[in-house]
Design brief:
Elements (H helix, E strand, L loop, with lengths): L3 H4 L14 E2 L2 H4 L4 E3 L6 H4 L4 E4 L4 E3 L4 E10 L9 E9 L1 H7 L6 E5 L10 E2 L4 E4 L14 E6 L14 E2 L4 E4 L4 E7 L3 E4 L12 E4 L7 E5 L4 E4 L13 E4 L2 E6 L10 E4 L2 E5 L2 E3 L1 E4 L1 E2 L6 E4 L10 E8 L10
Parallel strand pairs: 1-11, 12-15
Antiparallel strand pairs: 2-3, 2-24, 3-10, 4-9, 5-6, 5-8, 6-7, 7-10, 13-14, 13-26, 14-25, 16-17, 16-23, 17-20, 18-19, 19-20, 21-22, 21-26, 23-25
Amino acid sequence: MTGAPADGGTADVDSDSRAATVALPDDIVERYEKFSRFNSPYPAHDRGRAIDLYPGDGVGRSPVAGTVREVRTVGCPDRPYAAAEDHLIVVGLADEWCARAGAPPETVARILHVIPEVEPGDRVAVGDALGPTTRSGFFGQWVDDHVHLGFRPPDANPLRASGSLPVAAPLPVEPVAWDGTGRVVERGPSHVVLAGPRRAADTGRSFAALASDEGVPLDGGVTHYAGGGTFGAAEESSVTAGTTLSLFRTEIGRVRADDADAGAPRVEWAPVDVLANGGRVTGLSLFAARGDRFGVKVVCPDREFDIGESVTVEVVPSDDPIRLGVG
């Protein structure tokens, strides 16, 4: 989702795997309709060092509290559906916010994909409007507008993402099983959303996500990005390094080695194709969502499905799986 010098899309590996993880408090994440940590091909997301927060109303509300240090306009990949430029808002975090999130004092937040209506010196609180969200060339056409959030240690260059701190959203996410069938309830130029799966009643969890056959809530682009991840409920499922995950009775990946900078279990996808009504599609775009029902987003720029059409999704082994890069 992020890229270019301002976003650090080409380098995001921190040599210090002991870096403190910034854990977003539940009440902050719950201000948004959806969130994802791994649904992107860029290294910041692949290594668990960024989170995308989807407001749902076109307003880029702040997930942090502090003082705006810098506002930058940056170039982004040229996409026909996207704006020609993106924006970076750098916020020096308030001590109280850092303490709540377990971040080192003087940590800096980096916020992208918001057209800034703030300027250096402005104080912002959690929930304050920073400006409208923007359609950025840093993310796919099927991706909804969102606030990209990452964190930099106090002594690092805040204009780059390389070396950002690990980010976690430890609130529990309900894993929801699905049989792969549903009717089209939304259609975009490169995707459709299928009705279902349906959440269980009264779980006490504000977010839910599509579950693997093993009951693990999944995060990421299945499998059009090389890797993905899991959500908080995975801890309850005894997921450990090397655990095999499957979907519709086909292996889709294995949990990566447990490293300190991931913030939650990460998954390396297996070589598989996603099929919709027997034809190959790009993949499934997965995230944690609020509400009694949430749709499964099928990424299918080369296929057309009508509203109300019944679709069956399958996963099959592949010798040439789709893998989208950052170019």
